[in-house]
Structure formats: C-alpha cells, structure tokens
Design brief:
It comes from Anisodus acutangulus. InterPro entries: Alpha-L-AF_C, ASD1_cat, Galactose-bd-like_sf, GH, Glyco_hydro_b, Glycosyl_Hydrolase_51. Its main location: secreted. By secondary structure, the protein is of the alpha/beta class. β21, α7 (436-441) and β22 (455-463) form a beta-alpha-beta unit. The two termini are 40 Å apart. The structure holds 2-acetamido-2-deoxy-beta-D-glucopyranose (NAG) (7 copies). One 2-acetamido-2-deoxy-beta-D-glucopyranose (NAG) binds at residues 598-600, 603-604, 606, 608-609, 612.
Length: 669
Amino acid sequence: MDSSRSRCCILLLVLFGISIQYQCSASGIDTNQAVLLFVNASEASARKIPDTLFGIFFEEINHAGAGGLWAELVSNRGFESGGSFVPSIIEPWAIIGDDSSVIVSTDLSSCFVRNKVALRVQVLCDIEGANICPGGGVGVYNPGFWGMNIEQGKRYKLVFYVRSEEPINLSVALTGSNGLKKLATTTVIAANVSNWTKMLVLLEAEGTDPNSRLELRSTTKGVIWFDQVSLMPLDTYNGHGFRNDLFGMLKDLKPAFLRFPGGCFVEGDYLRNAFRWKETIGPWEERPGHYGDKWKYWTDDGLGHFEFLQLAEDLRALPVWVFNNGISHNDQVDTSSVLPFVEDILDGLEFARGAPNSRWGSVRAAMGHPEPFDLRYVAIGNEDCNKPYYLGNYLKFYSAIKEAYPDIKIISNCDGSSKALDHPADLYDFHIYTSASYMFSNANHFDGAPCSGPKAFISEYAAHDDAGNGNLLAALGEAGFLIGVEKNSDVIEMASYAPLFANTNDWGWKADAIVFDSSQAYGIPSYWMQHLFKESNANPSNSLIASAITWRNETDKNEYLRIKVVNFGSSTITLNISICGSENTLQRSGATKTILTSNSVKAENSFTYPKNVSLVKTMLEEVSEDTDVEVFENMDVGLLPYSITSLELLKNPPALWTAATASDLESSF
Ligand SMILES: *[C@@H]1O[C@H](CO)[C@@H](O)[C@H](O)[C@H]1NC(C)=O
Ligand SMILES: *[C@@H]1O[C@H](CO)[C@@H](O)[C@H](O)[C@H]1NC(C)=O
Ligand SMILES: *[C@@H]1O[C@H](CO)[C@@H](O)[C@H](O)[C@H]1NC(C)=O
Ligand SMILES: *[C@@H]1O[C@H](CO)[C@@H](O)[C@H](O)[C@H]1NC(C)=O
Ligand SMILES: *[C@@H]1O[C@H](CO)[C@@H](O)[C@H](O)[C@H]1NC(C)=O
Ligand SMILES: *[C@@H]1O[C@H](CO)[C@@H](O)[C@H](O)[C@H]1NC(C)=O
Ligand SMILES: *[C@@H]1O[C@H](CO)[C@@H](O)[C@H](O)[C@H]1NC(C)=O
C-alpha cells in the first residue's frame, strides 16, 4: 500500500446533513480511531433523489454482446467477417477434411442482398467409388466464441440457409472441442434445394461441454453453399436472446437506466465502421453486420437497436440511446452535410416511439413489439465535445429532435460541471477514469457544479489505473465517489460504471464489472459495491439525507434508513453515530450491517472464487435492545480498514397521530 494514503485523516465522509468530528492522532496508522457521525434525519434536511440516479452502461467492447450477453453461439454466422470481397477468410470457421476430400471457399452468391458472401463447400469424396469420404464426412465446423457452452437437457435452435444442385444429406452435430464427444446429432436430408432454402433444426444436448462446436458434414460428392448459420439456446431471458446468467447479474443491480451501445463503439475509428442502427434491425439474416474498428472485432449485429431497447424494457430500465452525430475518431461530417444523419436519427426515434402504423414504427411492430418503447433520453455523440464540427452538428440534431419530440431529454458531450454550457442541453456527459485514490477524492467534484441549467450524467466512471483485474481498492475509491454523487444528486441525474462486461478471451480493457467466459461469470468488487447503491434511485418514498437515504421495500412496504460509510484508510475506525430528527422512530432490533472488504486491497474475484470479495451482511448487535427510541445516540459501529459499510435501520410504521401529515410522508425522514 502507498503509505501516504494510510494516514488517519484519509477518512472522508462526504456528506451533508451529517457532521463529522475526527479524533485522530497525528500518525494514526496503527491506532484505532474514533469518529463521531451525527445524522440529522429531519424532514427539512432531506431531499428527493432523482429517479434515475444509478444505472448501467452497455458498450460492445471486450465481446460484451457478441459472444457475451447476446446468446448466439455461432461466431461469424454469415461469413462476412473477412469483409465483403471474396475470397475472404472465414475464421473462426474451420475445415473438416483435407485437400483431397473437400475445397472450401467463399463467393457472392447469397440470397441476402446486404450480406452477399456465402460459403461454398465442394465435396470431392463420395460414399462410393475411388475417393471414399472419411468416417463422418467432410465439411466445416464453428467453435463459437472460444467454445460454445452446450448443456445437457437444454435445447438449441439451429437455423441455416443452404443451396445445392444435388440432393443433400448433411450430418449436423454438436460435439466436444476435439470433435469426438457427440452432444447432439441429426441428419438434414432434402431432395431439391436448387434454390436457397431455410433449414430449422431443434437439437437437444445429451451431454455438457463449455467448449463445444457445431459441425456440418456431408459424405456425398457435390457442391453445397451455406449462409447465415445460427445456433441459439432456447433458454434465454424471456426468449429474448439474452444469456440468462449475465442478464440476471444486470437485473440484480436494479438499474434505473441502460445507456447503449457505446462509448467509442458509437463513433468508430472511422465513420464507415460506426454503429448504424438501420443496419441492425429487421430479420437477423438480412443484417449486414459490421466491423467495430475501435475494439477490433466483427459483430453480426444480432444485438441491434431493437434488442437494446428490448433489453432496457426487460430490465425495467429507461433506455438512453447514444447515437453517432457524424463524427468518428478520425473523420467527421461537415455541419452543412449532416442533414441525412439527422434524418436517420429521427427515423430511429420513430422506430422506438412511433405508432405501429408509422413508417419505422411498423418495422418495430413487425419485429414483435407494437407498443412504443419508453425512450426518453438520447446522447448526441460520445466524447466529441472538442471536435471541430461538434457544436454545429449538435445544434442540428438538437433542434430537429426537440421539434419532433419535445419531451426527449438531450445529452451533450461537453462538460458543464465547472462552467455553464454555451449551448442548450438537458444533461451534460461526464467521464472519469483514474486511480482509486483520485476517484475517492473526486467525491466533491460536483460540489461546485452549477445548480441551474443542465444536470450531470456521469455515464462512465471507474477507478482504472490501479484496479488490476478489478480489485477492492478500486471499489472503495468508487464508493467514495458515489457517495459524493448521492450528496450532489440535485445537480447529478444519472451515473453508470464502465465498462460493464468482459469476456476473459478478449479482455481489451480492465477493469470490467462482470467477467465471463462461455459458461460462467463473476462480479468484481466494484460490481458488488454497486449493490449498496441500488436503492438510491428514488421511488416515491425515497429521500436523501446526505449519504443517509431512506428507501422503501416495495414488496413488504418496510421503510429503512441506510447509512453508507467508506473507510479508505488502513486503521479501524469506531464510528459513534447519533441520529436525531426522525419523525418516525427507528427500530432497535433487526438492524443490519453489510460490509465489502478483504485483508488486501489487491484482492480480486475469479471464476474459482467468484465471491472472494463480496457483500457480507450481519445483524447489528449494538442496537439489539428492543426499545424504540426517537433519537439514536452513541451507537458505536466498527469500520474495518479498507471497507465499505452499509447500515440499515428499520423505521417503525408511522403512528396514527401523524396522519395529518401523511401527504408529507415521502419526505418524512
Ligand atoms: C436538523 O436539521 C434541521 C433542518 O436543517 C434543523 O432545523 C435542526 O436544528 C437540526 N437539528 C439538529 C439537532 O441539529
Ligand atoms: C445419408 O448419409 C449417411 C452417411 O453419412 C447414410 O448412412 C445415409 O443412408 C444417408 N441417407 C440417405 C437418405 O441417403
Ligand atoms: C428443383 O426445383 C426447381 C424449381 O422448382 C426445378 O426447376 C427443378 O427442376 C427441380 N429439380 C429437380 C431435380 O427436381
Ligand atoms: C426458385 O427461385 C426462383 C427465383 O427466385 C423463383 O422464381 C422460383 O419460384 C423458386 N422455386 C421454388 C421451387 O421455390
Ligand atoms: C423486500 O422484502 C421482501 C419480503 O420480505 C424480501 O424478500 C426482499 O429481499 C426485500 N428486498 C430487499 C431489497 O431487501
Ligand atoms: C482472495 O482474497 C485474498 C485477500 O483477502 C487474496 O489474498 C487472495 O489472493 C484472493 N484469492 C483469489 C483466488 O483471488
Ligand atoms: C459517543 O459520542 C458522544 C458524544 O461525544 C459521547 O458522549 C459518548 O460517550 C460516545 N460514545 C461512545 C460509546 O464512545
């Protein structure tokens, strides 16, 4: 540990409505310290939290979607990833057989106009004659994204398009990674596929292997073309195509919003590779897919504009659509030529919100969602504020969107936290990636932010520089920062950690909240830290008292006072808490304490120890006397070194005589 960090006064309780007195020695490294925490829980010092304070940010980075949340098992299903010219490489597809038995190539004979590349498999061997096919036949296999996770008893939907002048007799199989262990097999026979023909096969696995592959083989001489080969598990969230375990980890965070689909992914290194929503909708077979040049991988865009909106709806989160504003990392469209880009985005808004009989709303309806999506936020670009055409382009988008959809809130890329923006906006974007200690000390960054005008959207925050693969230290720094976000939630409307996901096989950016491979996943300490903030989105009964919030469990209707404290130092701190001003009494019994800590700030989680650093909840014995009091005094709570502690105190139901003020109950703490 950096010793300068371990002095006594590193403890920062960032809060108002809370006053703190430090009693610490000059060195303080080994001595226990005592700190007084006074919580004034009176109504007058309470403030409502924004409904949307904490959410999530999904970017297609680290194979977060392709080979991640999007459950498609075939990688490069349309054979387009090598580019639209042929011959092209077909990786990760690979050939089964040798030069004497099979020749595999690509041509432009597909029936799909936006993705013309098809796979041509010329089988040289046969079932009889001089050149007999090897056992099982020859053809191709796809290993998925570093192995397909096939699980016993589960069913998988295989769809592919095929053409041949001869009758076909294909053997289709899911096998272990060496091709030997058969997990599911079937035969596809057709007498006449002289036209492109769609085949649909349901496979049920008879074994489990997280590193499986899909094989397509033939033992008959002739030429067979394949295109758009998809293998989807039937078991996805709501049948919507999201991998269940990863979806569940997002849902558990109770995100108030979902920002998508990037990030730099939205801009691209070059405009020609930017995310274009229109290329990602409609039947999946017809989507061209695109190369994400910033993070250097191809996506078939199965997870497209519609699926992102569906994901937000399934998470009960408000979608926040970040769109390309005619600017990439290396090229940009002059404001005088940006109009087609503006019209394209208006179409995208109509796709999300238009009536089912509108031009683009009807495309959405045809995809199975006649009701509009609840799209209320858009961001004009990502990190583009200083680009020459940003402001000009921004204003074109801004006025066109406000005219068509006056209620949509528009997010500017320019930082309005230190000085007022020189252009209209509802929110301004703010990104912070730094060291854990700098993150911690940035808890007060927004103390001086303008109170009027646009609110802050901290759409990307993370302790990055010294986070390792995602360690405790980073989570502590971020927790301190987030307490500052709560405290300043009169000027901050939204905040989200970044990035959300990493596939361990393409860990291009560290740290990431959730780490996974084909079959398993774990949350880093920062993921668990965020759980302590998930009640800090207002529902009607929540209010803010500094880092103390009150929140209501919508299931059992209980109300709680939650006090969060980060100890960013190496000493144990005794916190002596007094709470006054509560119109409703607090119950002495049933209080809990939830801690995130470890014996090392470098501690991380892993597949083997997914919860090495995670939340531990215990009863708070110090308040176990069963008398109810209106004032909590001198409640001592030990704060472990390098820890986040969350105290949860149950409020008694309001007494009858307070009924006169029942209309004020939402702020009654
Ligand atoms: C608590 O805060 C309220 C409102 O700011 C104030 O009127 C009251 O005096 C405070 N109570 C104490 C004990 O400081
Ligand atoms: C299909 O091919 C398999 C060998 O791969 C063979 O056993 C089977 O008889 C063939 N079926 C037909 C209908 O030709
Ligand atoms: C296959 O179908 C096409 C189109 O209907 C037809 O023209 C062709 O003669 C058929 N081929 C055979 C071998 O039956
Ligand atoms: C084959 O495709 C052609 C051209 O698209 C079409 O006219 C014909 O009806 C198709 N034949 C069959 C049997 O589907
Ligand atoms: C809310 O209450 C229900 C019922 O007691 C409980 O199962 C659930 O865990 C509670 N939720 C939270 C977030 O504490
Ligand atoms: C678990 O955390 C401890 C520190 O508490 C650390 O020493 C250890 O390496 C971690 N184990 C794993 C498997 O990450
Ligand atoms: C907590 O602080 C109060 C006020 O300073 C003091 O009177 C009390 O003795 C302290 N309690 C403990 C247990 O240290």
